[in-house]
Write a structure and sequence with these properties.
The complex is a heterodimer of chains A (376) and B (314). With 376 residues, chain A is mostly helical. Chain A contains 15 helices and no strands. Chain A has a domain of 224 residues. The longest helix of chain A has 32 residues. Chain A is globular, with a radius of gyration of 22 Å. The chains are: A mainly alpha (376), B mainly alpha (314).
């Protein structure tokens, strides 16, 4: 192996970072432009954003706390993606997990934390998983677009929550539209005194590692990936495509449900309207930016946590609407998509040159560049 | 005599319900007919919700600053078409996953309209309103008992939505352009081989879908709520997407399905006002549940063969 090649091999993992980093950078550049065009001071705005996210030890811990929901929902969406299923339903699944915990976390009395917490997390996984399995089943069995079904299930979940917090699960005084605070045994312990860092974040990192092992090191994960890279080929090689789509959607929903539980048990302790400001939708950007890799989701969730924390302080300090964060999340999606296509075209051109393919052929191959980027 | 009054009352109630159905149908129908162009040319109309939101906001901004509803409609079409242009670049030119790009587009429209709404209108704190489109009675026809009230005493956008159905049907099935659109959607490669411009056709169809769905959104801000409310489309764009499938990718099917949705929405509204002992959240759920049921009932509908597949010249 020549030195140049060895260097290139060593740099290969670094090359994986080019598209995500460029995408985030570009989204920020556009964000600055938008802020300037809207008549705000961009320097002041982004200083407030950075200060809010990283300006002090406490702010940084808040960023970590905020990244929790992005982590779980992002992992969920990433796993569904692996089976070529597009789970936009993380929002509803997140709510279902939270709903299960807001009920059981009050109802199961007299049980110590060490038993209660695993029960609640398990229940949330099942609730979210069931809510994800339904669109998975409809997709696998009758070909119903999971995009439409999950979006509808999200709206239904929001209405169910809106009803339940004023109905069956309303707090005992029937004054506020929210559920009762869960029992203290159900609350996730705080890890660092003086912050809101809770056990759920640690659980999130462990779940990310587990998801990584599941996807890359188990037969189930292998089959899900096979279905994702080629349903027809998988079918011929004897993999049950339908079962794997349902399985991937159920796990995906389970992880999102777990996210709802962790947020409730670690941060809010009760369920109310707008409990999720759209974590399930942001999760799509989180998963795409991580190239659907569970371990990378840890990093992208952190970034989105920083953006969310920063956006709030930006709104307070510079009076720029925090909605800017949603715009930037959407921009991240578009930039990731575009740069992936450009990168592929670029790589193809270079490998063609290396192989000494004649110019005409290389030119023809260039135009194919983008086609492969679909859903992969 | 009491029986007479009662039947009169129910007759009025039914007329009201059907009149209201026409109005609740219009925005979804505009989006669904628009989406048909995109779908039939082979590009998934998954971004309809985003175009609608863009149209609702663009239409309101245009009407508010010009004081003219028609300029509002123009602005709504431009807003929808601009969002559609962005989507077309990704779906047609770059050939990325249309599901992902379409969802990204909806997020961009949701965040963008929310952000701009707060920048432009929320500083004062109170709702800014416009004078909405009023019903225009069609001379003669509107005098017909019951039918006149239901069909011929509506605002212009309702007329436009329903007129677009036969127009689209004729265009798709009786003109050379329609044949071209359908060919590109069925078999892009064959269409290309016989000399049709796949890229141009698809861009055109996606832009038309954006402009029409933009009008559907403008209906909500300019003829219904009289203001812009964040996320006011409430997934109607996704319902339109489902309606197209449920209507078997045909304008007449889309009309039938849209009417079904409009009717459910009108019933739901009426029940809310009637104050039944059902929590209103369950009534609000109705259109979403209906969409799920429609998706299940549609089953494996035969879609245009090239739908969702980007095309690259070899």
């Amino acid at each position: 192996m020549k030195a140049g090649e060895r260097l290139r091999a060593a740099l290969r993992p670094a090359r994986q970072l080019v598209v995500p980093l460029l995408a985030v950078f570009s989204a920020f550049v556009v964000g600055v432009l938008v802020v300037a065009l809207a008549g705000f001071n961009p320097a002041k705005t982004f200083a407030a954003l950075l200060d809010g996210a990283f300006g002090s030890w406490y702010n940084f811990t808040e960023t970590l706390v905020k990244s929790g929901p992005f982590l779980f929902t992002g992992l969920g969406v990433a796993i569904a993606f692996r089976s070529r299923s597009f789970n936009i339903g993380a929002e509803g699944q997140f709510y279902m997990g939270a709903l299960a915990v807001s009920w059981l976390g009050v109802a199961i009395k007299g049980v110590p934390s060490i038993i209660l917490i695993p029960i609640l997390l398990g229940a949330a996984f099942v609730a979210g998983g069931a809510y994800g399995a339904v669109p998975g089943y409809l997709k696998a069995r009758i070909g119903a677009s999971e995009i439409v079904t999950t979006v509808m299930l999200n709206s239904i979940a929001v209405q169910i929550v809106s009803w339940i917090i004023k109905g069956p699960l309303q707090e005992p005084r029937h004054f506020y539209p929210e559920t009762a605070e869960i029992l203290s045994a159900a609350k996730l312990p705080v890890l660092v005194h003086g912050t809101r860092l809770h056990l759920g974040l640690l659980i999130g990192v462990l779940v990310a590692v587990a998801a990584h092992v599941f996807i890359y090191k188990t037969v189930f994960g292998y089959q899900i990936r096979a279905v994702g890279s080629g349903p027809l080929a998988s079918e011929y090689s004897g993999i049950d495509v339908k079962r794997n789509i349902i399985l991937a959607m159920a796990i995906s929903g389970g992880l999102a449900g777990l996210g709802g539980a962790v947020e409730l048990m670690g941060v809010t302790w009760k369920l109310y309207q707008n409990f999720s400001p759209g974590y399930g939708y942001s999760a799509i950007a989180v998963a795409l930016l991580a190239k659907r890799n569970p371990l990378a989701v840890i990093l992208t969730a952190l970034l989105f946590g920083a953006l969310a924390t920063g956006a709030n302080s930006m709104q307070r300090a510079a009076e720029v609407p925090a909605m800017l964060a949603s715009v930037m999340q959407a921009l991240v999606i578009f930039f990731v998509l575009a740069y992936a296509v450009y990168e592929e075209g670029f790589a193809r051109r270079r490998s063609n040159r290396k192989r000494g393919v004649d110019r005409a052929k290389a030119g023809a191959a260039d135009t194919v560049g983008g086609a492969g980027a679909s859903n992969d | 005599m009491p029986a007479m009054t009662e039947s009169l009352l129910t007759m009025t109630a039914i007329t009201q319900l059907l009149t209201s159905t026409m109005r609740t149908t219009a925005p979804v129908l505009l989006a669904a007919v628009g989406g048909l162009y995109s779908d039939r040319s082979g590009v998934l109309s998954i971004g309809l919700e985003g175009y609608m939101l863009g149209g609702a906001f663009g239409g309101f901004v245009g009407a508010y600053y010009s004081g003219n509803l028609w300029i509002g409609l123009l602005a709504a079409m431009i807003a929808g078409a601009l969002l559609a242009l962005l989507y077309a670049y990704f779906a047609v030119t770059l050939g990325v996953s249309q599901a992902v790009a379409g969802t990204g587009l909806v997020m961009l429209a949701a965040g963008g309209t929310g952000f701009l709404n707060r920048v432009l209108f929320r500083s004062s704190g109170d709702f800014v309103r416009i004078t909405p489109f009023q019903p225009v009675a069609i001379p003669g026809l509107s005098q017909i008992p019951v039918v006149g009230q239901i069909f011929f005493n509506q605002n212009v956008l309702v007329y436009l939505a329903f007129l677009l159905v036969p127009v689209t049907w004729f265009l798709l099935y009786r003109t050379a352009l329609g044949l071209e659109i359908r060919s590109v959607g069925e078999h892009a490669k064959a269409a290309d081989t016989v000399g049709l411009n796949v890229t141009l056709t698809r861009y055109g169809c996606v832009l038309v879908s954006g402009a029409l769905a933009g009008l559907g959104g403008a209906y909500l801000s300019l003829a219904h709520a009289n203001t812009f409310i964040e996320m006011m489309t409430a997934e109607r764009g996704y319902m339109a997407f489902a309606i197209i499938i449920f209507g078997k990718y045909n304008p007449l099917g889309a009309l039938g399905a849209s009417l079904l949705f409009g009717f459910a929405d009108a019933v739901q509204l009426k029940l809310q006002i009637a104050g039944l002992p059902i929590p209103y959240e369950f009534l609000l759920m109705l259109p979403y549940v209906l969409t799920l049921v429609a998706m299940v009932a549609a089953g494996r509908t035969v879609s245009p063969a090239s739908l969702g597949t980007p095309y690259k010249k070899q």
